[in-house]
Amino acid sequence: MNKNKRKVSRGVRKNNYEQRISELEEQLENAKLENLILKKLQPQSKPSQIERKPK
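Predicted structure:
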């Protein structure tokens, strides 16, 4: 009976890890999309606003 409990415990633990990985992958994808959107929304920099090195 002890062996059966261990197998179930490992199975549940593995399922929890897989679920957590899935959640983290979803969060990562959302963060990537948000980052892409924010990059697209940034105002275009004008050449006069960019710092130039003295010659």
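Summary: Residues 5 and 11 are 10 Å apart (CA to CA).
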